[in-house]
Amino acid sequence: MKNNIRQRSNGTWEGRYYDVDGKQHSLYGRTKAIVKDKLAEKRAEIAQGTSITETDLTVEQWGWEWMKTFKAGKVKHSTLDNYESDFRLHVVPYIGNVKLKGLTTLMVQRVYILLEKEGLSPKSIRNVHGMLHGMLDKAMKMDLIRKNVSKNCELPHIQQHEMHPLTKEEMGMFMNLAKDDEYYLMMRFDFFTGLRESELIGLTWDCVDFEKHTLRVYRQFVRIASGPDKGKMMYTPLKNGKERTITLTTTAMAVLQEAKRKQSEQRLRAGSSWHNEYNMIFTRNGMFVRFKTLYVHFKAIVKRMGRPGVRFHDVRHPYVKHTTKIFSLRLMDFQAQAYPDARRKTRGACQLLRGGQSRSPVRPLCNRE
Question: Running DSSP on this structure, what letter comes out for residue 316?
Answer without folding.
Answer: G
